[in-house]
Amino acid sequence: MFYLCSIGSNLDPALHVSQVVAELLARFGRLHLSSVIQTKPVGMHSRHDFLNCLFVVQSDLSPVQLKAEFVTMELAHGRDRSNPLCKVADRPLDIDILACGERDDFAEAGVDAYLGDLLAEMYQGGSVDSGKVTLGLPGSKVFAKQRIGQAPIHLCQQDEALLPGNGHPGPPSRHAAIRHP
User: Fold this and answer.
1) Which SUPFAM superfamilies match (predicted)?
2) Using CB atoms within 10 A as the burial measure, which of 6, 47, 54, 142 is most buried?
């Protein structure tokens, strides 16, 4: 199953977004990642802007299982989900599943307006003209030099172990292949 997901962060967002992209890549082996944009908060009052992006991951996990993994990642990054107002509070990390399907084809998926340009850029050759942010991927020597955020990108960790739910065995190597569309 393919999942279209979003990442948002407005507390130390550059750190949390870059770290979680690396964590997702390590967990699932492959990601189709959108540009990263800076946005004003939507549906909440905050003085902290968000960094937002979309990603597609393929997994054998059910939507409930995948969301549970995302919640675990959010908690590890310091999100307080016990707060009844956590949906409208500042957060270090928020990962949501927006759509799922048998193919990586989410061009017609319904997303919030502030994510619409990112989706069009990923699937329809659209462009995001403002607010793009460049981030580095932490971790390995390869990722230390890799920059994300300025355009959609396919990330593939070639040292993919076949973990439950990732469905992608890869060649035995310690490097990541970074493919731009």
Assistant:
1) 6-hydroxymethyl-7,8-dihydropterin pyrophosphokinase, HPPK (SSF55083)
2) 54
According to DSSP, residue 57 is labeled: E
pLDDT digits (tens, 9 = 90+) for 56-105: 999 999 999 999 999 999 999 998 878 777 777 788 999 999 999 999 99
Radius of gyration of the CA atoms of the chain, in A: 15
Are 34 and 135 within 8 A, CB to CB? no
Q: How, if at all, do strands 30-33 and 153-157 pair?
A: antiparallel
Q: Is residue 171 part of a domain?
A: no
Q: What are phi and psi of 46, to 5 degrees?
A: -155, 150
Range of the domain at 12: 2-156
Return the closest-CA partner of residue 55 out of 18, 14, 10, 13.
Answer: 18
pTM of the predicted structure, to 2 decimals: 0.83
